[in-house]
Design goal:
Strand content: 5-15%
Distance between the termini: 59 Å
InterPro entries: KsgA/Erm, rRNA_Ade_diMease-like_C, rRNA_Ade_Mease_Trfase_CS, rRNA_Ade_methylase_Trfase_N, rRNA_adenine_dimethylase, SAM-dependent_MTases_sf
Keywords: Methyltransferase, RNA-binding, rRNA processing, S-adenosyl-L-methionine, Transferase
GO molecular function, one term: RNA binding
Strand order of the largest sheet: 4-3-2-5-6-9-7
Structural class: alpha/beta
Radius of gyration: 23 Å
Number of strands: 9
Number of domains: 2
Family: Belongs to the class I-like SAM-binding methyltransferase superfamily. rRNA adenine N(6)-methyltransferase family.
Pfam families: RrnaAD
CATH superfamily of the largest domain: Vaccinia Virus protein VP39
CATH architecture of the largest domain: 3-Layer(aba) Sandwich
Length: 338
């Protein structure tokens, strides 16, 4: 990334985009700010692809570095965006949710593929940039919100319902996103139970996280409740690795693209209560090195836990990392009968 950093610093600074307080249009400051916003958006529109140079110029236009607090790492390789969209099999008419569009490089590929994009962006400056960049299309909407705090159903459902009313047989809704690295687990927990809204979720994540989420073999040191959660609500698939040199600023790790094919509620594992099931799983892993008859004894006496393990055809000495999703389902349903 030495070359990327050099290019970033070598570009001439351009005035910052307007923040929440915008000078009046007839003032010199107001004219400069409006001209800057139009200049950046037009330059991006002229570019057929969001390549290395276009992305860095767009970032430099605001005179500030990507924000570490927001986990911002911008894609510099347009081919990766193309591969990401192909992995999601995005087609004409699809409705796509994108989280953290940044300068709009992935957004651009999604729109070119025929999708309508709803983008959720926390950074006000990026919201202004992509809103201006895609102002000429009616297939893009951006909301300035923190995704992990917003009520995504209230935004997506009306859009989906209106499109279904027009042509129910062709409408699909997906999530395709190059996620900010600091919110990936939170986003996954929010999205995967939404099989009624989305058919699949295709995310670019840290490679280590991606491998851990997809890996299903037992036992592994990284086996956690999130593995149970992911497989309960989806069928995860590792697509391809993305080298760290594809981003600015360059992170310390590589990334990877994962597809989560979301299950519909009737296809979830059959448990007496979803809430109590995940409560049991979390309790089991809180005492990961303990036998389940010890870590779950706050639910019912150890003797009853042993009986439930036996009825589920599991050793009475079982520990959480030794149980698959199906094993946890059997155990939970046996305990629920006690």
């Amino acid at each position: 990334m030495t070359t990327a950093t050099h290019l970033f610093h070598s570009l001439p600074p351009i005035a910052s985009l307007p923040t929440a307080t915008v000078p009046a249009a007839n003032t010199s400051a107001g004219i400069r700010n409006q001209t800057t916003l139009l200049h950046v958006a037009c330059a991006l529109r002229r570019s057929q692809n969001d390549d290395y140079h276009a992305t860095l110029k767009a970032l430099n236009s605001k005179g500030r570095f990507p924000r570490k607090s927001l986990g911002q790492h911008y894609m510099l390789n347009s081919e990766i965006n193309e591969q990401l969209v192909r992995a999601a099999n995005v087609e004409e008419g699809d409705l796509v949710l994108e989280i953290g569009p940044g300068t709009g490089s992935l957004t651009n590929v999604l729109i070119k593929s025929g999708a309508t994009v709803l983008a959720i962006e926390k950074d006000l400056h990026m919201v202004a940039l992509v809103r201006e960049r895609f102002e000429s299309t009616d297939r893009f909407k951006v909301l300035q919100e923190d995704f992990v705090k917003c009520h995504i159903r209230s935004h997506i459902s009306p859009m989906l319902e209106s499109r279904i009313a027009l042509n129910a047989s062709l409408i699909r809704s997906k999530v395709v996103s190059n996620l900010p690295l600091n919110i990936s687990t939170d986003v996954i927990k929010l999205l995967l139970p939404m099989g009624d809204l989305f058919s699949e979720v295709v995310l670019l994540l840290q490679e280590e996280t991606a491998v851990r989420l997809v890996e299903s073999s037992l036992p592994t040191p990284e086996y956690r409740p999130i593995n149970i959660f992911v497989n309960f609500y989806s069928e995860p698939e590792y697509n391809f690795r993305v080298p760290r040199t594809s981003f600015f600023p360059q992170p310390n790790v590589d990334a990877a693209v994962i597809t989560f094919k979301l299950k519909q509620a009737p296809n979830y594992p059959s448990v007496a209560s979803t809430k109590s099931f995940f409560s049991m799983v979390n309790s089991a892993f809180n005492g990961k090195r303990k036998m389940l008859r010890k870590s779950l004894q706050h639910i019912c006496p150890s003797s009853e836990i042993e009986r439930a393990l036996g009825d589920a055809s599991l050793p009475t000495t079982s520990r959480p990392e030794e149980l698959t999703l199906d094993d946890f389902v059997k155990l939970h349903n046996m305990i629920a009968r006690v």
